[in-house]
Amino acid sequence: MMLQKSMVLTCAAILIAGCSGGEQGNESTESPSAPTAQDAALEDEPEVQLSELAMQGKRLYLRCQSCHTVDANGPHLVGPNLHELMDATAGVKEGYAFSSQLSDSGLVWDRETLDKWIEAPQQLVPGNKMAFAGLPKEEDRAALIQYLDEATR
Fold first, then answer.
1. pLDDT in tens, 103-115
2. Distance (Å, rounded) from C-alpha 37 to C-alpha 80?
3. By the 8 A CB rule, do 114 and 148 touch?
């Protein structure tokens, strides 16, 4: 039992480090119009036309893609597939085992709820199993939510 608890804590620490992106508070010195290798990777994916704000959110989503997929037939990873996220009930997705805290929360994923969730998941639903520290910048959350809205329809 103690070994299992230790393994869970180790995995959580790794996930937190991976999801945080390590960029909090760092400002990019690159020109926003200069193409990067990251932009090229994003453009290789076939996808519907995204708004400018959603494209900014797609860049932020790179932090999320190790745990979540967004396409209709995407698998669940460490976290659930996010297809048809908007207006869905939190903690309900066939084939994914959510924490009881999230399943019992009664939340519905709309822009306001997602904003609070992405800012600090553990504050909105204490004890949930999402190992993500959150995005502190309001403009980053708005861009990510716009991307999720457009990409998960």
1. 999 999 999 999 9
2. 27
3. yes
Torsion angles phi and psi, residue 108, rounded to 5: -125, 135
Burial 85-123 (b: 16+ CB within 10 A, else e): bbebebbebeeeebeeebbebebebeeeebbebbbebbe
Residue pLDDT, tens place only, 92-149: 999 999 999 999 999 999 999 999 999 999 999 999 999 999 999 999 999 999 999 9
Whole-angstrom CA distances from 99 to 20, 30, 92, 106, 139 are: 21, 40, 10, 13, 29
